[in-house]
Write a structure and sequence with these properties.
The protein folds into 2 domains: 139 residues, Rossmann fold (3-Layer(aba) Sandwich), CATH 3.40.50; 134 residues, Rossmann fold (3-Layer(aba) Sandwich). It is 45% helix and 20% strand. Helix 2 crosses helix 10, helix 3 runs parallel beside helix 4 and helix 7 crosses helix 8. The chain is α/β, with parallel strands linked by helices. The chain binds 5-S-methyl-5-thio-alpha-D-ribofuranose.
Length: 320
């Protein structure tokens, strides 16, 4: 019934290439579920590739996607130096392009992000408040990933405004098993810095790695401030004695839906802003416990603003 209201080209079926740099971990899995759900509602055949954090492979996948002449391309994460020249080629070839979490300044490209600089500031300020405005903190950061670089700019602002906060260690690893690899580095940081009061870990895989290291070292008085949310993350945050006290997060499935809707609007020639922001919410451990939130479904019910169904949409786009 819904398909009949779609524009003609969608009724016939359209192909959208989703070219992913990373796909492992809760955020990326949930994001894909949302994207697939929205694609199905729009009769879009989503052609998905995953470069598993290998940037050469990401470039190869993007070139292959361009060569296959899809109706649109969504580039999900990736280094600007790797993907932007190819994105320019795609635009020149007349293919509509949407990027999520890529630093790109081609005016034809729709860029989606989770207001990451502001997110970095908000979770950083929460950390400062949580440790009384002073003390030693650890920071998990890997440069080169647009959302992490943007959050880092927000955190830099917080540090400038709070001179009694001493960042004593920066560490982290993004890989196919980010949480485990970050945990190994966190073990060493925790041992070397016995006065640590908190760790800022603004990516849920980072946060989980740090939590595991703190639990193994019996140092759960060190507070963890993270980013992202998922059902497993909620389990970690609400566990008795958990050091993970706050996170700044969108609903990743909602962001995936926004990306597919943006591609649909662009390929249909409908108006869409070049910059699409999906604002995150600050979610505390206290909020989750007080509201008996155990799953992402529970959280969606308690925080309906996580579903930005009016972002990047039109009357003909089915709500999913
Ligand atoms: C390695 S970048 C990881 C981040 O990408 C998405 O923006 C998620 O929020 C995650 O924190």
């Amino acid at each position: 019934e819904q398909a009949a209201q779609l524009p003609e080209k969608f009724q016939a079926g359209v192909e959208v290439a989703l070219v992913r740099q990373l796909a492992s971990g809760d955020f990326f899995q949930q994001w894909l579920l949302g994207a697939e759900e929205q694609a199905k509602a729009l009769n879009i055949d989503l052609r998905i590739s995953d470069a598993r954090n290998n940037n050469d492979q990401h470039a190869t996948d993007l070139q292959r996607a361009i060569d296959s002449k899809p109706d649109a391309i969504i580039v999900d994460h990736g280094l600007a130096t790797t993907v932007n020249p190819l994105i320019d080629d795609a635009v020149k070839a007349g293919i509509p392009v949407v990027v999520f979490d890529v630093e790109n300044d081609n005016p034809e490209v729709v860029e989606i992000q989770q207001s990451d600089e502001e997110a970095g500031t908000r979770i950083g300020e929460e950390l400062v408040k949580g440790i009384g405005g002073e003390g030693e903190v650890g920071y998990v950061y890997v440069p080169g990933f647009a959302p992490l670089d943007r959050r880092n700019r927000g955190w830099d602002e917080v540090k400038k405004a709070n001179s009694a906060i001493k960042e004593v260690a920066q560490f982290g690893e993004v890989s196919d098993s980010t949480a485990n690899d970050t945990q190994e580095q966190a073990n060493a940081v925790i041992t070397a810095n016995p006065e640590l009061k908190a760790v800022l870990a603004p990516y849920d895989e980072f946060a989980k790695g740090v939590v595991n290291a703190l639990e193994a070292a019996n140092k759960t008085d060190v507070k963890v401030y993270g980013a992202d949310i998922s059902t497993p993350d909620i389990g970690v945050m609400t566990k008795e004695g958990s050091p993970w006290v706050a996170t700044i997060a969108t609903d990743p499935a909602n962001v995936g839906r926004v990306a597919v809707r943006a591609a649909a609007l662009k390929l249909n020639g409908d108006p869409i802003d070049t910059d699409v922001l999906v604002p995150p919410s600050l979610i505390t451990q206290d909020f989750l416990r007080e509201n008996s939130v155990k799953t992402l479904e529970d959280l969606r019910a308690k925080l309906p603003e996580l579903n930005t169904q009016d972002t990047a949409t039109a009357d003909w786009i089915p709500k999913s």
